[in-house]
Predict the 3D structure of the following.
Amino acid sequence: MIKKLILKYFPSEERFWEVFRFLLVGGGCFVLEYVLLYTLTEYCGLPPLYSAPIAFTVSLILNYFLCVSFVFHAEHQSRSQVVLFVVTSLMGLGINQVTMWIFIDLVGIWYMFAKVIASAIVMIWNYFTKRFILHH
């Protein structure tokens, strides 16, 4: 019954588990990034738009290794795949920064709420771009 439910929403059972692993890794990396953002801003005195890319980068490095080994099982990366991963990650950082700026400076919400919104947008970007890169 569970397999039937999975196959109703996913093309295969493996794709379901891949998405599950992606959300698990992404959730852990989000917590790391969120804690680093708060720590760098509140305890180190950095402005949120400075602490956000630092936290993003640390989380991204861990996320890369976990995605390659645990999520997508794509341990052997070509040079072009690594370059594309870096480029799309930098684009994700840009999306993160623009979203943070819009919600902090233009909308006026607390930077930690802005981070949740930015992370949701970047998560969608990351899944589709990383999956494409690591499977081609």
Summary: The CA atoms of residues 42 and 48 lie 9 Å apart. The two ends are 33 Å apart (CA to CA).
